[in-house]
Structure formats: C-alpha cells, structure tokens
Specification:
This protein has a single domain, classed as 3-Layer(aba) Sandwich (Rossmann fold), CATH 3.40.50. It contains 7 helices and 7 strands. It has 245 residues and is α/β, with parallel strands linked by helices. A 7-stranded parallel beta sheet has the order 3-2-1-4-5-6-7, with helices on both faces. Helix 4 links the parallel strand 4 and strand 5. 42% of the residues are buried.
Length: 245
C-alpha cells in the first residue's frame, strides 16, 4: 500500500522541493499551503509526471484549517505516514515596535501549527502502526540576528516541541525529529556571489533539495533510531568562529 506524506508550505521554496522528492519516491503527497496559485501549479506539474499529488489550501495559523487538511488527507488517501511541518513566516521588527498581534501571528504560524498538526496526524499514524514527523526550524533557533525575537522564539520552540513530543509518543513507533536549515537559497542560484558560497565550510550556499533529502532520510523506517533530534544543515556556518577585525 502506498504511503502518504503531508508537507506544509509546499507551494514554494523548501516545501516545494520536499513535496517533489516524496512524490517522486512513490508517496501520495498532500501539498498544503495558503498559496493556492503556486500550490495548484505544483499539483498539476506532479500529476503530469503521473505522480500522486493533492493540493489542499491550508492556513496553518487557523486550527479549523488544520482539521480540514487532516480530514481531507484521510478521506482521499486513508492514511498519513509522514508529516513535514515546514510552513513558516518571519516578521523582523525592533522588539519595542513588534505588536502583540504580529508576535502571535508568527508564533501561531510557526510553532502552534506544528503542535496541532502533529497531534492530529499522529492519530492516523497510530492506525498505520507508526510514522514520522519532521519539523523545519532554523539556525536562528541557535543564533540570532537583530530584531528577530518572534521568529527566533518560534523556531527555538520547535526544537523543544520536537524532543518533548518524541518522548510523549515514544511508545507508538513514531519518530519526531527537527531540521534547522541555514542559508537555503530559493531564488536564482547563479546570481549568488563568490563570497556567498566561499564563506560556508562546504563551499556553497544550501539548496532546497539539501533539506528535502534530509527529510526523506529521517522519515525512512530503518532510520528510526534517530528520534527527538535536531539536525543542523547549514554548510558548517554555526561551527565557524567569526571575528570582526
């Protein structure tokens, strides 16, 4: 029986690469995003390749929209095996100018959504005898830029949510892991400068496909000894000491 994967934020960037990879590996792939135009384009593109793909418009900051997403996946495919919590937004502003509404919008989109969606999807994973969840955080959970409080807090919360839920569901044959990407370029890679690439220990800026392959690795059943972990994928930048001269 084919397995089913839900990818949030699937219409663009990292999520698009993740969705395309899972579809190419034979998964029934649910493309969840608030961006209907690009989500439907991706669905059409994958279907042209005879791959199973279903776009579902979903605002992950809305609990009712999350319930609709899970119900649609169940009704269409009957199961959920993999969940990639990738949807996220950023709103950089000085702390004394950041409104409560903007703070809540970032936290609800980036953090609360992952809790609610994971909790809902796991009920179906239990029926299948197990499954895997990957939360997409950021190296900003570990190091900061100016005026990134809401974003950093939401991504740091994802790290804690990952290991806490991994413990809570440890008896259900369900792995819950996290990936913290660094600079992943989603635009024209050829327009990057030499310094953009050379400053990384790996000699290049990251690509969405780097994160997609890591998601696939973490959700393969034979890799279930990796659980509750945060995998930093940043070309080595968080390991590099930088001094201003």
């Amino acid at each position: 029986m084919k397995k089913t994967a839900i990818i949030t934020g699937a219409a663009n960037g990292i999520g698009k690469a993740v969705a395309a990879l899972y579809a190419s590996k034979g998964f029934q792939t649910v493309l969840a995003d608030i961006d209907s135009e690009n989500g439907e384009k991706l669905q059409a593109s994958l279907k042209q390749k005879n791959l199973d793909a279903l776009f579902v418009r979903c605002d992950v900051s809305d609990p009712e929209s999350i319930d609709h997403l899970v119900k649609t996946a169940k009704d269409q495919f009957g199961r959920i095996d993999v969940l990639i919590n990738n949807a996220g937004i950023s709103d950089f502003a000085p702390p004394d100018e950041l409104t409560v509404e903007d703070w809540d919008r970032v936290l609800n989109t980036n953090l609360r959504s992952s809790f609610l969606l994971t909790r809902a999807a796991i009920q179906l994973m239990k029926e299948n005898g197990g499954g895997s969840v990957v939360n997409i955080a950021s190296t900003r959970a570990l190091m900061s830029e100016k005026n990134s409080e809401a974003y950093a807090a939401s991504k740091g919360g994802l790290l804690a949510l990952t290991h806490s839920m991994a413990v809570s569901y440890s008896g259900e044959n369900i792995t819950i892991n996290c990936i913290s990407p660094g600079w992943i370029h989603t635009g024209d890679y050829e327009k990057l400068r030499d310094i953009d690439n050379s400053q990384h220990l790996s000699g290049r800026v990251g690509k969405p496909e780097d994160i997609a392959r890591a998601c696939l690795f973490l959700t393969q059943p034979e890799n279930n000894f990796i659980n509750g972990e945060n995998l930093v994928i940043d070309g080595g930048m968080t390991r590099k000491m930088i001094y201003e001269h």
